[in-house]
Amino acid sequence: MAVSFAAAVAYYVRPLPLAIRRALTQPNKQSDHQTTTMGGGHHHANPEASPRPTQDLQSLSDAKIPLAFRDTCAHLLVPLNKCRRTTWWSPNKCGHERHTYEECLWNSYLQRCEAKVQVDKVMAAKAREEED
User: Fold this and answer.
1) What angle do the packed helices 95-131 and 74-86 form, to 10 degrees?
2) How many CA atoms lie within 13 Å of 93's alpha carbon, on the beta-carbon side?
3) pTM for this predicted structure
4) Which residue, among 49, 44, 99, 95, has the nearest Cα to 72 in the 3D structure?
C-alpha cells in the first residue's frame, strides 16, 4: 500500500495541544519580570571570558599550546588543558573551564563582527566621498 508524503507527514506531525498554542500566541504576561528570550535569558556576563589582545607567549610555549590555538583566548586554554590532562579527558569534568573558554571564543567572534561593521562603515563613507 503506497502512502503519499503528505499523508505520512499529517500522520506523524500532530498539532500542538490547545493550551500550548494559546501560550505561544498570547503576549507575555510577565511585564514586571525580565522578558523571556531564546536561550532562556539566564546568562550573566563572565568577566573571566574576556578576550585578551596580547598573550604571554612564553607561558603558551611552556604549556605546549599549538600555534593554531594561540589566539585571544589562549590564556584560558592553558588551565583547560591542564584540567583535561589531570582528569584523563573525562567529558564530565572541567565544565567550568570549557564553558569559560568557549564563551571567550564567542566574545572574540562578536568583537570581530563589530570590527567588521565599523570597517564597512568607514569604507562606505570613503566610497561616498570619492563619488562626490
Assistant:
1) 160
2) 12
3) 0.66
4) 49
